[in-house]
Amino acid sequence: MTNRSEQAYLEALSRVVDPVLFHSFDELGTLRGLKIKRKVAHVTVAVPGPDYPAAGELRRRILDVFDESIEEIDLKMVDLTDSEREKLGEKLVGDSAIIPPSQEPAEGAGAHSGHAPTTERPNPFVDRSSLTRVICISSGKGGVGKSSITVNLAVALAQAGHTVGILDADIYGFSIPRMIGVGYPPVVLGKTIIPPVAHGVRCISIGFFVEEDQAVAWRGPMLHRAIEQFLVDVHWGAPEFLLIDMPPGTGDIALSVAQQLPRAEIYVVTTPQSSAERVAQRMGSLAKQMKIPVRGVIENMSWFETPDGQRFEPFGHGGGEALANSLGVTLLAQVPLVTRLREGADEGMPIVAMAPEGEIGLIFAKLAADIAAASPTRIYRSELSVS
Ligand SMILES: Nc1ncnc2c1ncn2[C@@H]1O[C@H](COP(=O)(O)OP(=O)(O)O)[C@@H](O)[C@H]1O
Ligand SMILES: [Mg+2]
Questions:
Q1: What pTM, to 2 d.p., does this model score?
Q2: Residues spanned by CATH 3.40.50.300 within the chain?
């Protein structure tokens, strides 16, 4: 027997948004039932699994729906079955249409029945209709602050109201989950991966899937496949910006990543003392081989200021400017050496999230605004490219 308040609560509940899946019960189809009997609400919802990281927050959001007219809420969370999980994954990644029903493995048909369909999903970032700007953060070598810049730029873009994802493509030196402070692992729905969100940024990294040092044994094709899977099987939700923390230099992995992102833009991180010519040559050749443009230079560790306001330049001067000149692009930002920046990275609390109005926060806010204001590249349309 449905009474009026039950119907009203049902509608309110169906609008509750899952904090990890980012869709409402209505869209997910996971509200299993609501019964109100003698001021007690009996609610049943389905969640991906017993260790679902959002269970606590989801519970809070459900309880919030009810007012004082309800004295007790009896909330049951049941687990999705394997096949329900897989179906939900397909729905979320938005490509169920590409798997024709005739190709779905028939029930009980051989050893592979019940496994995920092997049909390849398209790479959404290659599609010309994609509205995502893919921003590759590259450097000539490691240790110049590529990951630090990626994380803080992503948080600054999110603070400015953009939708942002980070793909940690530095497979041998992954550090994004630790630096941005991801609090829970990705949720796997069949072959769809739901990335965790930290400071408003969706993140994926090989670090979620392998032990430290394990990826070192991987060879080229495995790495290529891992990156491909991160582009294709992760529910990015068509963000405005996808930042790629690139492997340092221009080795095979960097080429492989760039190859899979033909519409990307490269931003180069350098220190003031880097040999501008060498870095420029390398980045220039990466851009040329991959036919993707270098759009700007970011200089990191530019200076150090003592508490009494004295400035030192421990890594010299002018590297960013020289590199920008030789690449024919703009030096977009200079980021000083700041202890809090390193501590923030070590503690998983990016300095831009901690102090958006501080010196570093403002530098990244401006960098984010400048990158957002730059028109997306059209180089993939050869008729528009300027020579
Ligand atoms: N501007 C900065 N001020 C202080 N420490 C920094 C700065 N940029 C980077 N670091 C620190 O330097 C180290 C290397 O930076 P990281 O971002 O990991 O470089 P990469 O990704 O290029 O290897 C890290 O410990 C990081 O916290
Ligand atoms: Mg790094």
A1: 0.87
A2: 133-384
